Amino acid sequence: MRPFRRILASLTACCAVAGMLAVTAAETAQAVPARHASKGGGVVTFAEQPGATPTYIFPLYNGANSQNADITYLQPLMWLPLYWFGHPTSSAATVNYKLSMADPPVFSSSGKTITMRLKRYVWSTGAPVTARDVVFWMNLVMAEKTNYAGYVPGGWMTHVASYSAPSPDTFVLKLTKAYNQTYLLYNGLATITPIPQHAWDKTSTTGAIGTYDTTSAGAKSVYKFLNARSESLSTWATTRLWQVVDGPWHLKPNTGFQITGQVIMIPNKRYSGPNKPKISEFEELPFTSAAAEYNALRSGTVDYGYVPTTDLATLGSLKASGFKIEPWYEWGLTFLIIQFTNPKYQALVSQLYVRQAMQMLIDQPEYIKKLLDGYATPTYGPVPTFPKSSFLAKAESKNPYPYSPTKAKQLLASHGWTIHSGGTDVCSKPGTGAGKCGKGISSKTKLAVSLMYPSGFPNIANEIQVMRSAFNNVGIHLTLSEAPENTVLSDSFNCIGKSSAECPASTPELAIISSPLYTYVPIYYPDGTSLFGCGGATNAGNYCDKTANQEITEIESAGNAASLKTLYKYQEYVAKQLPLLWFPNAAYQISAISNKLKGIPAQDSTAHIYPSTWTLKS
Questions:
Q1: Are 330 and 609 in contact (CB under 8 A)?
Q2: Which of 284, 383, 580, 610 could form a disulfide with 88 if both were Cys (CB 3.0 to 4.6 A apart)?
Q3: Same domain, 199 and 344
Q4: What's the CATH code of the domain at 399?
């Protein structure tokens, strides 16, 4: 499971030109017939984030290709999931049945059988979207689970008993165990995406369409072929494969994608769902830097862009030139990773009181007000505080460890540390028990840890410097290192799944990559399986707590009402246990939207965009 698009964005950029394959005449896309030509509506331009251009088009992606540019700005505009999450008119990260391809799922057999009835949709070829297309997706993902970002070892895919298409509009999934129905919908059924079996069930460019997916070996061959074509970025706009869509958009044939990251989409004239496109063309534009994007925005060549944090002082002039400014917050978290298996620091960070003292020195309200210009929300635990949701416990809407250098000093002193404000605290009472430093901490151990943060993020750099000063005043010494985001990502995930004997002591003890750092997308239920579960796929710090693990299991398997109570209990526990150091969740971007662009009442916290609802006013 890889729900952390922001974490992986830096890795995918370097792979954007990988896998170039030769294009054969048999696969070259044909021009759209004149009768399908777009009429009026205008062209809308949308700015991509610097260095985060599309890298993967096939909607069965791995973790390294799960950034916004792929899974929210590209694929779902062309291939729709059975269940849509997010709303074009609000920031809610909840299921939207109006935009979903299927009616609400029906549970039977004590919750082990799920029946999903498809609405009437058609492919751009004119063929109907059927349950066979859902089976096709399931066959491929079950054959290649470990290559799919939504897979979790031991998760729902592990407990699939069977699946079938008893009728063209009915898909039935049978499991060997029952799950909390909301959890299964949000983290399982939400990922299922029909794909065109009548056009993609092949194993080579020139091969015939067949039913290869019905055997495991055949499904692997089909996946191998489609994956290779997806990695051939230079052929996206010229291959017939990717022109077969059921969503409102498709790539402009022959010129709709360039490996620089530029995307040009035109309406799918056979789109049969709600919100048919009104504009004639939608363009996503790549930029090498935020400064380059901002120059384009001010020159009028970008309709929907963003303001770099270094240019917030110019918002007045931007508004005067015809833009409205809206912060875009995502359904996610920001935090400092704590490495629990680093042999050099393991004894220190294993002490809850040490983590508590550190958290008491992070002044989130002050950071938000003075360093982030108010464009951030606080992070107090494993469930986002914004947007408000039924998943957020009342207790977690308040900071469990408010900023207090005085209390931090008292806490450390009461556990055997001699405080050296402006220097480095030293353990003067080693051993376990009341008033002692704790297990594994020897006499004269210094309270010093390393912290790595990314270059090129002024707001993060400012926060870290202020934090360092606060730590220093209490005698906690931070050794800082700044590096490109790729390096921070690589180094901070260096010990994932490793024991203290395997984890290099040079691994940064604390690390922050970006903000938001982790998003609950495209799996939306905030139970933290991957992030806080023992051995979780995104558990970079190797946090492992039996109580938290047990509560996560209960959340996923309990009935809906009981599960919500367990979720509240779990988040309150994890918030106080500090598997991470909670940090302000800065806006994903400060959006600048042209006043001429209408139909954007809100920005979706799931990071989906809705160009089908947009119109241009001259």
A1: no
A2: 610
A3: no
A4: 3.10.105.10
Query: What is the distance between the alpha carbons of residues 195 and 218, in angstroms, rounded to a whole number?
Result: 16
CA angle 364, 367, 372 (to 5 degrees): 130
> Does the CA dihedral 431-432-433-436 come out positive or negative?
positive
Residue with tokens 């004269």: 444
Instruction: Give the global pTM.
Output: 0.88
Q: Which two tokens mark 131?
A: 């349950």
Contact residues for 190 (Cβ-Cβ < 8 A; gap 6+): 81, 82, 83, 85, 95, 522, 523, 524
The parent domain of residue 407 ranges over 333-586
Query: Do 142 and 213 have their domain in common?
Result: yes
What's the burial of 328, exposed, middle or buried (CB within 10 Å: 0-12/13-18/19+)?
middle
DSSP codes, 176-209: SS---HHHHHHHTGGG-----HHHH--SSSSSPP
As a three-state string, the secondary structure of 11-25 is HHHCCCCCCCCCCCH
What pairing do the DSSP bridges indicate for beta strands 106-108 and 335-338? unpaired
Cβ–Cβ < 8 Å for 74, 184:
no
Task: List pLDDT tens digits, range 304-334.
Answer: 999 998 899 999 999 999 999 999 999 999 9
Assess if residue 582 is contained within a domain: yes
| Number of domains the chain contains | 2
Helix 546-557 crosses helix 560-577 at what angle (to 10 degrees)?
160
Angle at 78 between CA 73 and CA 82, to 5 degrees: 100
120 and 262 together in one domain: yes
DSSP structural state of residue 556: H
Which of 482, 495, 445 has the alpha carbon at shortest distance from 338?
495
Q: DSSP 3-state assignment of 592?
A: strand
Instruction: Calculate the CA 34 to chain-centre distance.
Output: 39
Give the residue carrying structure tokens 């996503």.
284
- The answer to whether residue 389 sits within a structural domain is yes
Residue 355 included in any domain: yes
Beta bridge partners of 592: 305, 325
Q: Which helix (H) or strand (E) holds 316?
A: helix 315-320
pLDDT score of 562 more than 80: no
What are the pLDDT digits (tens) for 21-64? 233 333 333 333 332 333 458 999 999 998 889 999 999 998 77
Helix H or strand E encompassing 407: helix 405-413
Tell me which residue of 293, 311, 310 sits closest to 302, measured CA to CA.
293
